[in-house]
Amino acid sequence: SPSKAAVPIAAAIGGMVVPAILYAVVNLTRPDGSPGGWGIPMATDIAFALAVLAVVGRNLPVALRAFLLSLAVVDDLGAILVIALFYSKGFDPAAFAASVALLAAYGFLQWKRVTGWPIYLALALGAWGFMHASGVHATVAGVAAGLLTRVKPDPGEQESPGERAEHAIRPISAGVAVPLFAFFAAGVDLRGTDIASTLTTPVALGVMLGLVLGKPIGVVGTAYLTARFTKARLSSSIRWRDVMAVGVLAGIGFTVSLLITELAFTDDQYLLNSAKLAVLIASVISAILASLI
Q1: How many alpha carbons lie under 13 Å from residue 107 in its C-beta half-sphere?
Q2: pTM of the shown model
Q3: Which of 66, 79, 108, 208 is most buried per CB count within 10 Å?
Q4: Could you tell me the pLDDT band of residue 279, with boundaries at 50, 70 and 90?
């Protein structure tokens, strides 16, 4: 129901804003700070957070899984918007317009109930290519195509197009795309690097504080204020200590945080390594703390 959905949505927004503020404060108050990486600690990695919950939280209520999934999806959409608005380079309006036109055609065909996956694959790939050429991060085209895909089955349909696409794409996404991205994005060159000094840079401190402290503060604080002062309510099977665990679990940034790191520090290998190392360490700390809670 909307009243139950409102709490994780608000929690996701708080879980993005507070980490970004903590990172900005750390980096704006230090002469060697780099405030441009403020988007790094905003993101939650859906796959890894749900994996930890599946391993250590099998006896927890199903509603808590739905709460985490709702929070993480809204969080990811927020991260994608941040990438589109603040971490895209050299905007080309013609290429962007072409991508939007292809996405509009995609949505129109979905609305008209036109079938045939090759048509949609061609439109999606074209939109992806033009979005990339426009300077806006191509991930935005993927998210837009997903949002435009019909998810409610018509009378007589066993599955909606969205469900069929999910079942077809999930093995490739989970089994190939995500592991490959994590493998290539997570590499940190530690040759000749003093790890202690690297982790005390404003960038690393801002990322770790944002993910380990900012996420639970933002998630739990915003969820509590929403449930306390509005008509929105937590599911009756969820306790506030469960929400605290989810808030800590949301500090697993990993793949999305690494993606923003690559975009924020393209030209500075030292800051890139500092931020990546901080993301990896903060994600491990968050996973361990959430498991204990």
Answers
A1: 15
A2: 0.83
A3: 208
A4: very high
Instruction: Show the tokens assigned to 40.
Output: 């790094």
How does the average pLDDT of the chain come out, rounded?
Answer: 90
Residue type at 3 in one-letter notation: S
Instruction: Check whether 59 has a pLDDT greater than 90.
Output: no
**Using N-to-C axis directions, what is the helix angle for 46-56 and 254-264, rounded to 10°?**
160
Token pair of 178, please?
Answer: 């995500």
Taking the CA atoms of residue 279, residue 284, residue 290 and residue 291 in that order, the dihedral angle to the nearest 10 degrees is: 160
Q: What is the pLDDT of residue 199?
A: 86
Question: What distance in Å separates the CA atoms of residue 251 and residue 55, rounded to the nearest whole number?
Answer: 17
Nearest CA to 73 among 264, 250, 210? 250
Instruction: Please give the Cα distance from 244 to 223 (Å, whole number).
Output: 10
Q: Select from 219, 226, 225 the least CA-distant residue to 242.
A: 219
pLDDT at 270 (0 to 100): 86
